[in-house]
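Page 47, continued from p. 46.
Same chain as before, 762 aa.
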Amino acid sequence: MRFLTGALMLCVAFSATAWAQNSTTANISGTVTDPLGAVMPRATVELLNTATNITRRQTTNEAGQYIFTDVPSGEYKVTVVFKGFRQSVSSLINVDGPKVYPMDVTLEVTDVLETVVVTGTRSEQEIGKISSAVSVIPREEIQQGQRVSTLEESLKRVAGVRVEDELGGNGSRVRIIIRGAGTRANSPAGSGVRGVKVLVDGIPKNNAGGSAQDLTNIDLQSAERIEVLKGPSSVLYGNQSGGVVNILTQEGPPEFFVTYRQTVGSYQLYKEHLKFGGQRDRLSYYFSLFRNDQDGYRANSRFNNTGFTSKFRYTIDSVSSLTGIVTFDRNFQQSPGPLTARQFAENPRQADPTFLANDVHSMVKETRLAAIYHRQIFGDDDLEITGYWIPRTLRPFRQIGVFIDQFFINRGVNVRYLYAGRVGGFGSRFTTGLEYQNTPIRTTTTSSTTRNITSALSEHANTIGFYALEEFSIRPNLTLTAGGRYDNVRFDSQNFATTAPRAERTFSRFTPKVGIAYQPTSALSFYANYSQGFETPVIGELRILPGGVFGFNTNLDPQVSTNYEVGARGGFFNRRLTFDTAIFRQNIRDFISPFGTFPNNSFQNVGEVKQNGFELSTQLQVIPRLALSTSYSFSDFTFASFNNGISNFSGNRLPGVPKHQLYGELRYTSLMGIYGAVESQYVGRFFVNDANNAFNPPYSVTNLRFGYERESGRKIRFSPFIGVNNIFDRKYSAFALINDALRRYYNPLPGINVYGGLGITY
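Result:
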């Protein structure tokens, strides 16, 4: 607390010094209104100096007013942006002398699909021209009034996506499932990610083998937006890309700011977060510090982490920039373990006796260093080179009967080139790139009873991929997409505690995609696509052989998916009603399924899965400032063929995926800055084993949150908030341990719990 408070005082002193250095020459001010003359608070206003390309930004106050002070002589443009309205760009304002230059703005309502995303094509593209299912969660929905603890808070509103929270509130123990991809992340003491690519500013959390042990070092208080790409995405992102989650973080804004936020809540929750940023000449900077502590809902589930996030962007010249990212996170987490149905019914807050007796816990330290060079070439062409070096230490990791000490470095280089021009008189966007990623891993396992080393592993995961994607505009409203990617993934492992030889496996695959996007009007877009994806076994799945013998399972192959999809997105009635829908059919062959008893699970290819799905998201502006958002997912996922050598479960449902999932939120924001929201999520029952003789019961959870937030230029802003989760005190589990031989399937989550806090921004 003293550290963050001291840092806050330094930031305020720094900002005061910076402000004092400005010289007053002129002011540009005005009021932003809608077509009916109503003022528009919280509209984003940018002031651009056309000679220097320096931009200042602020938001309108509760009266719809803005003012830029200390404006030196020169030519300027004012741009105003507000969701659901057409962007307004003023004519040139010639500032000459110390006076007030009025610039009132009236925004026009628009149905146009103007959202720009980067995840769908690895470069900025209007969402209406993308032939894939893409969703965007803005900063307001990630942070405002939320605990800002896990991705579950943000992603549960996305149709086709489910984030399973293992422990009920910390950011590291979640499992992300997108259209069924991700259920193999099956460790109750590390969860992690399988089958889904998780990126932060385009830099992978997954290692070279495709897995991510947990989601430490994701500072959601620094998130600008989250983009979700659903369905097989191997054409751009390679192995383990049944879906993509890309968290894009804030950059330093034109005007200096500093924000301190403190949150307290049930189960001794205590969170602190300090962030500040700004711009000086050609350098933008952003820095955040965070600390999270919680005893946890269940026994043996204490959690704490501390760390920082920093991002610097230097504009080299008018066509090139260099971005640097440095982050660090220290994460301690106890693990209560999964429960049987009987244990769950008796006392959902208890820990599994075996986990409790072994004091299962982990300590993770992770540093992320990255550099991104971006340059415009030949006008509209883009070159981007990204390099990253991410050392990670897992020490100690107390597991059942053993101590694990692990160190690895996730390192890689990505090169992407975008050609944007015309070919044969038609518009063309051609993206090509190379990705190289390498992860050396050192793991030592020691018996907790004899203290003898039982395993000393030296392992490598290595992947290289080449991709190309063409977006060809036959007409301005009709875009054809075609592309492909070739990947080579190699694993090797040697156990120096045995005489066994080094084990090696190599997998390679070409994955194509074709698609079409058609916009009959500026407010409506249809798309269709065919794509393939593949998921290799991760190194831990290859290494675990039946019987515990060291080596790689030579009978375990990648699972390959083929996806057919059609969808539509758009808005009606001046965007009072917006929607996004998709229908898909996906076939997966050589499906990889876990079996056995944690932590000695084995994996095998069991057959073919057929997936038929429907997704629908809507948002309705019921009355001004009152919005209703809904999403629904229908997932009919079954084993077309299944044979594990013992049983034939053909026709059974895929475990871990509910057939029905529904989310709804009613949100109100007043002109005075008061806001409130009620949200509810329903998840249908889902089976927890391939035999379909045990299931996770259906559940519904309703949450409330309220707060006050008002922006008014450089003034100090207080933002109190309070939330109540699971207001009906439901008893439920979301994260299931699939196919556990001891039938310990369930991870209970908290009943009714509260949190509240205060943010202060200068």
